[in-house]
Design brief:
The chain has 162 residues and is α/β, with parallel strands linked by helices. It has helices at residues 4-16, 39-48, 110-121, and strands spanning 20-26, 29-34, 56-64, 72-80, 85-93, 99-101, 124-126. The protein has a domain at 4-97: Beta Polymerase, domain 2, CATH 3.30.460.
Length: 162
């Protein structure tokens, strides 16, 4: 029996091949690398297609490849409850203008996860309904999970708020 992750990748290639930069299913970890301009269309397909049914966005994170361009890689983990399978979707964004479309309309759970990525990596989400810091205070300068963030950097002191 074919692994569903591989079957989902085949279905994605069949329906949205032009949006894909690469795919693999190494050791059962099915992964699709997507053109960031086509991310929302691909994700909507993966959620709504009857053969895929990735109805849950379980995680949104980023990776900083300092020195490479595009510098940042967005990583999305999807889960299909009916099929009990997972799929990883990745898209790269550049350092000069690190921005990608929000997935909040597809999965409301994306709201806080995208805010966390914004807070820690500085990647913006176009169309996000409330893109502001979620872990750090508003006056915090920089994005501490970037590899070029100075760990010794002093942050502005903030007094009590009335």
């Amino acid at each position: 029996m074919e692994d569903f992750g591989s079957a989902a990748l085949k279905r994605l290639i069949e329906m949205h091949g032009s949006a894909l930069k690469n795919t693999h299913a190494n050791l059962g970890d099915a992964t699709a690398i997507v053109d960031p301009a086509r991310l929302v269309d691909v994700m909507r397909f993966l959620r709504d297609d009857g053969e895929c049914q990735f109805d849950m966005l379980t995680d949104v994170t980023a990776v900083d490849y300092l020195g490479e361009e595009p510098r940042f890689e967005m990583v999305y983990h999807l889960y299909s409850v009916p099929r009990n399978k997972r799929l990883r979707v990745k898209a790269r964004v550049g350092e000069k203008s690190p921005e990608i479309a929000t997935l909040c309309e597809l999965w409301p759970s994306a709201n806080w996860m995208e805010r966390e990525v914004w807070d820690l990596y500085g990647i913006r989400f176009a169309g996000h309904p409330d893109l502001r810091r979620i872990l750090l205070y508003e006056e915090f300068e920089g994005h501490p999970l970037r590899k070029d963030y100075a760990k010794e950097k002093r942050q502005p002191l903030v007094g009590p708020r009335n």
